[in-house]
Amino acid sequence: MKEKIHPKYGKTIVTCTCGNTFETRSVMGDKLNVEICSSCHPFFTGKQKIVDTAGRVEKFQRKYADAARAKKVIKKAAQKA
To answer: Mapping DSSP to helix (H, G, I), strand (E, B) and coil, where does residue 26 land?
Structure first.
């Protein structure tokens, strides 16, 4: 391996938004902030949690709410006929 071309690999303190902190090794620096970790991720906790930082879930629900209502109206009309 060539010398003096690799980044510094050292201890890093990782802090999650849920408050969990742990120490690991990384080239990212001394401190690293993350939005989700193993103590709050739905896969590890078994609880449903929607992580939405830009309003994407609400935008999707608004977009397809009219389509869902129209589908119900069509279904009711077909049952009456």
So the answer is: strand
